[in-house]
Amino acid sequence: MHPILSFDHVFKSYKDGDTTLDVLKDIDFSIDKGEFIGLVGPSGAGKSTLLSLAGALLTPSQGQIRLNGKPMAAMTPKEQTALRLESIGFIFQSAHLVPYLNVQEQLIFVSRQLGLPNASAHEKAKALLEKIGLEHRIRHYPSQLSGGERQRVAIARAMINNPDLILADEPTASLDFSRARTIIQWLNSEVKEHEKAALMVTHDSRMLQFCDRVIRLEDGMCTS
Amino acid sequence: MYLAWKEIRHSKGRFFFMMVIISLLAYLVFFVSGLASGLAKDNASSIENLGKHTFILQKDADQRINRSALSSETVSKLSSTFGKDKVTVLNLQSTTVNRVGKQQKIDLTLFNLDGSQSFRPSLTAGNEPSPQTTTDIIIDQSIKRNGIHLYDTIKEQSSGLTFKVTGFTKNATFSHMPVAYLNQRQWHLFTEKRKVSGQKAVHAAVTTPFSLKKTRQLADRIHLNQNISEVSADTVIRALPGYKEEQSSLQMMISFLFIISVFILGIFFYMITAQKQAQFGILKAIGTSTGYLVRSLIFQTLITLFVSLGFSLLLTVLTVFVLPPGMPFSLSPNVIIERLLAFTGISLLSILLSIWQIIKISALSAIEGR
Q1: What is the pLDDT of residue B196?
Q2: I need a labelling partner for B233 at 20 to 30 A (CA). Which of A191, A219, B165, B282 fits?
Q3: Mean pLDDT across the stretch A179-206?
Q4: DSSP letter at A94?
């Protein structure tokens, strides 16, 4: 049984003129099905880089990253894009919805990318929106939604293709505590229920109570 | 093209604005193109009618058929060398006429074709004159603008001869003048009447179906008292008074309209792509391929273009209806297709920079928040 995501002694360094900048040093961890993992650390510790590596947006300088047992570095950029579409759900700091698509279309668009026919894409979007309590906002555009609603749509967009791995980059940064808690609890239950894996970068220590484990990054190294 | 279409529908205003600008530019292109080919026809259709023959002119005429004067001796020598069935003698004379009983003068050019390949103008109205008539002629229908109707009698001013217009033809103009076709007897009468004493009969040109090269080879063998030059029909047309000037200035306008279109389309799509940098980064991060985004841009460009072109063609058709009848305007399907293809080509050229922008955007920018 493979873990969903595994980092195998991963290093990432950037060339900065003559010196090399080691952003990540010997990162080694894995996430199993149903695990919801928090990633914390001071800014500049390499959290974003780690997330980008996990999402196949960057390739490691050394070491191996595997998704469902498959090494990602060996894939072509095209395969990596397809992988992000099918197996990875991204949630960003701010919702970053497409401004000219309404709530339902945000989800339909992603389903259609996978080649889903229009009718079933519609149904799927509707079902998911009902689940997160946004069915009354189906035809609204992002500019007509509150920050919390937008972030919920963004999370729905990340989940619509039923990905194995969810990568979240401070998903609650723009929300107040009670809303943030509701969303994270929901995300957590989704992960448990559908046996997904999630890696969430957060600054908010109050959110860590919902995580199964916490990875602390300091100066490019795992400290716990 | 889900994304592309949704954006057009959501940002109706800016796309509509763009379509209006491109429509007006394309309309101008079609209008000026129509004017250019209309003027070209008005200037040269009588020469174009003769077909792709090789013309033999007097060398000193500087390729201008209206200046050329070949002596009868030259013409008969050419005729015997080339073979009687391979030459046509072309006589032409620009002159003025007036309708009998009226004072108003009308410019026209008299054409006389003598030879086996002689061109027969097709009639749009009236009857074919009998071959031996000395009075009946056919004229290009553009003379109707000057108030000449079928069966009117006109008087040629230099010879004093009168002719009856028994038929109209079309697309027979020379230097923006209607052409009247005279038969051999009429031309003979005409030259006799206006002949100044001592002047020899002259002819404007000899045409032959032989190629330019072959014509040169044959002509080089003959010893002639005057220098001749062999030129193609296209050269003769370009050398018509005003032809080059009209065409090149109109062609320059058309080229500039295309260049302006490239910049306007290019800048528009460059700007909206630049605005969407962050959005494209996110889309790439969530698994949208670069190919899909590029195709969306091409789709939006072509939609904008085709709607605009359709609208401008509609405007052009409406314009044709309201143009005054004498206006030299002619837009053939070939020219329209040529311009449509040119617009499609330049629109794709104009978005190259935006396509490069899209390719360059990194999905990483989504995470880094740049």
Answers
A1: 62
A2: B165
A3: 88
A4: S
Q: How far apart are CA B348 and CA B342, in angstroms?
A: 10
The answer to whether B25 and B257 are in contact (CB under 8 A) is yes
| The token pair that represents B45 in the structure block | 């259709």
Is the CB of A57 less than 8 angstroms away from the CB of B367? Answer: yes
* In the block, residue with structure tokens 């099918």: A86
Residue B129: how many other CB atoms lie within 10 Å: 21
- Among B286, B292, B300, B360, most A C-beta atoms within 10 A, so best to mutate, is B286
Arithmetic mean of pLDDT, B298-325? 94
Chain B hits for A200, Cβ within 8 Å? none
- Judged by a CB distance cut-off of 8 A, whether residue B292 touches chain A is yes
Which residues in chain A have Cβ-Cβ distances shorter than 8 Å to B7? 100
Query: Residue A180: which H helix or E strand, with range?
Result: helix A177-193
* Nearest CB partner across the interface for B279, out of A93, A98, A105: A98
Separation CA A107–CA B2 (nearest Å) = 12
CA B39 to chain CA centroid, Å, is 7
CB-CB contact of A118 with A161 (8 Å): no
Classify residue B252 by burial, with Cβ atoms within 10 Å: 0-12, 13-18, 19+. exposed
- Model confidence pLDDT, tens digit, residues B45-54: 988 888 888 9
User: Measured on CA atoms in the order B76, B79, B84, B88, is the torsion positive or negative?
Assistant: negative
- Parallel, antiparallel or unpaired: strands B153-156 and B162-169: antiparallel
Q: Report the percent of chain B where pLDDT is more than 70.
A: 96
What ipTM did this prediction achieve? 0.90
* Exposure string over B254-263, b if 16+ CB within 10 A, otherwise e: beebbeebbe
In chain B, alpha helices (H): 2-10, 12-48, 72-82, 184-194, 212-220, 233-238, 243-275, 277-285, 290-322, 333-350, 352-360, 364-368
Partnered with residue A5 across adjacent β-strands are: A31, A67
